[in-house]
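Tutorial, part two.
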Amino acid sequence: MGSTATTTVPTNAELMEALAAVGAAYFQDFAAAAARHGLSSSQAKALGAVQEPVPMRALAGRLGCDASNVTGIVDRLETLRLAHREAAAGDRRVKIVVITDEGREILNRIRGEMARTHQAFEAMTDEQRIALHSICGQVLPVLAGRAGAGQ
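Running the prediction step on this input gives:
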């Protein structure tokens, strides 16, 4: 295209720093939107993790915290009527966390109010959005320890 500039391939360290910066900025936007609804970021993240019913222990894994911490998070969501616990059909000792309609509505509002995130994504072309989605789909399974999942 007539350009003499060369593109330097980023190092792993540069990619890690870029990914961390994007993740941190996203998390700040998410946490601010959650706070406007009286939720901590962990409580709001838990709502996102229980779009389908999830056992308490699995929810702890999804949130990256100890099972004892999940009890407090779910207690708060139950108090606010955003989620509730039910006994598992096969083992009544296992508690399943289920999002309520109110919880789903609050989560949708939080996601809708993430102005900086929406602004960043809306500034992208369709091709950039497709590429970003594809890259995330390639990187996430490896980072999450599910290499080869979904392939």
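The beta strands are 54-55, 83-87, 95-99. In part three we will examine how such features are distributed along the chain.
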